[in-house]
Write a structure and sequence with these properties.
With 183 residues, this protein is of the alpha/beta class. It is built from six helices and seven strands. The chain has one domain: Glutaredoxin (3-Layer(aba) Sandwich), CATH 3.40.30.
């Protein structure tokens, strides 16, 4: 029994480690998504977890939009989501709005997860992947930053290996988007 548990933990640790390596773009899944940088954001909508609708067109000319495509079963997503929410909140006074776009999970499960992590964020639901497909999401987490002009400024697939590096990467991208919006 103990050997089985230890073996299971070793397999789990290897799987998580491999997913973290893959999450930093170790393959070509992010190529299509990266090609969206510099192009207009797709005109897509999604239902919000707590009611209402996310309509990206409503933000054009008003807000910088930061999207995080994620799922509760995705280890790198679970690691990154709180940091992304924290960074976006620090930029809220500069016109940044944040939406976590959940991939094909039941609303009740998403609510329970967010509550367990003490995350008070806007969450869009993508039950059929139409929203994600518009952004060429092939791997999660994927972060997208859209400027006030409606142009995709930043796309990144995967997660940085620690909170400080993730915070620095997101802050740099948001600083650039804020700067671009003043031109």
């Amino acid at each position: 029994m103990k050997k089985t548990v230890r073996y299971g933990l070793v397999v789990l640790a290897i799987a998580v480690g491999c997913s973290m390596l893959r999450a930093r773009g170790a393959d070509d899944d992010d190529v299509a998504a990266k090609k969206l940088q510099g192009k207009p954001a797709p005109a897509v909508t999604a239902k919000l977890l707590d009611g209402g609708t996310l309509n990206l067109a409503d933000h054009k000319g008003k807000d910088i939009v930061m999207l995080d495509f994620w799922a509760t079963w995705c280890g790198p997503c679970v690691f990154a989501l709180p940091t992304e929410a924290e960074v976006a909140k620090a930029y809220a006074d500069k016109g940044v709005v944040f939406y976590a776009v959940n991939q094909q999970e039941e609303p009740a499960d998403v609510k329970e997860f967010l509550k367990s992590k003490n995350l008070d964020i806007k969450c869009a639901l993508d039950p059929d992947n139409k929203f994600s497909d518009a952004f060429a999401v092939n791997g999660i987490p994927e972060t997208v930053i859209i400027g006030k002009d409606g142009i995709i400024k930043y796309v990144d697939v995967g997660v940085w290996p620690d909170k400080d590096k993730l915070t620095k990467e997101l802050s740099t991208a948001l600083d650039q988007a804020v700067s671009d919006s003043k031109k």
